[in-house]
Amino acid sequence: MSDHSLDRRRFLGTAASGAMLAALPFRSAIAASENVKIAYGSDGYTWSVPYVADGIESWKKHGLNPSMATFPSGRESLESALTKDSDFGTTTDSPYLFAAMRGLKPVIFANYQRYSNDMKIVARTGRGISGNDPASLKGKRVATRIGTSGHYALHRYLEMAKLKKSDVTIVNMTPGDAINAMVRGDVDGLSWTSRAAFVVQNALKEEAFIMTQEGYSKFFASHQLMCTNETVVAERPGILKAGVQALMDAEAFIAKDKSWMDIVAKRTKTTPDAVAKETADFEFQLRFDDRFVQDLIEAAEWAIDEKLAKRPDGDMRKLFVSTIYTKALTEIAPDRVKLS
Description:
The chain is α/β, with parallel strands linked by helices. Helix content is 39%, strand content 19%. The protein has two domains: 18-115 and 221-338, Periplasmic binding protein-like II (D-Maltodextrin-Binding Protein, domain 2, 3-Layer(aba) Sandwich), CATH 3.40.190.10; 119-218, Periplasmic binding protein-like II (D-Maltodextrin-Binding Protein, domain 2). It has helices at residues 48-55, 58-61, 74-82, 93-101, 149-160, 175-184, 194-204, 230-235, 237-256, 260-268, 272-278, 290-305, 316-322, 327-332, and strands at residues 34-41, 64-71, 88-92, 107-115, 119-124, 141-144, 169-172, 189-193, 208-210, 222-228, 283-284, 288-289, 337-338.
């Protein structure tokens, strides 16, 4: 495979059609505490809402007994959910849409958070890169994980800089390997989360810096998702409602109690001040709306142009909407579901 291919093992499909989600019966109650395995994609502010749900034990409050697994990125945590190794998988929109376009039938039951600026371009000094000039990335080696939000964010950053993808060399690495490559000096830059940028800067001090993001919100938006598989939807829909209730409790806690930053700082091995700074533009709210679907379509068009995915048959909007499980959120907060 080429560097720009999703070099990953094949997901296991499930039997039911995504279009049947709305027709499935909805058993809302959990009779007793149920075990659920939650897969996280690396450690970052991206998962702030479920981290807070862990910290305030809102999963348990709603009848769930969670166990956790952490993977290198949201791509792998989504795979864990699709292969039924986990019940829930946290991911960003990019891995989800790749899976959906391949017909693998991921199911989104919570779109809990959005941001524009958490994905950072962190660069090394002495490499001819200016922090205030995005175009100075031309000719540089930038590490990211192909097929993730870090990759899509880099694409949008290059677009903002009026550069072509051929103007930089993209080095496909897991986040951990990319951080190590930055510290060793093997690459000139890294496109990943603010938490990764924090780690790099903490290691390199004045030898690393974060590039400007002025105007970047016009080019990039990322959604954070909690996904499952169709078997869970068909056989255990009660845990999906319980999961949504737990996440909404975490959302309410974030709105009223600043100690949520301590919970996230502990999980990300950063500081409450860093959490406050790097999540300043985050929007913490569970909802499904047309803007979400449109963002997915725009990202999908990029993936097709990059030859990372093939254009699916039929209408793309219908494809994405068919994978959204709205029943749980509709029963709890119907005003949060506005899909035309």
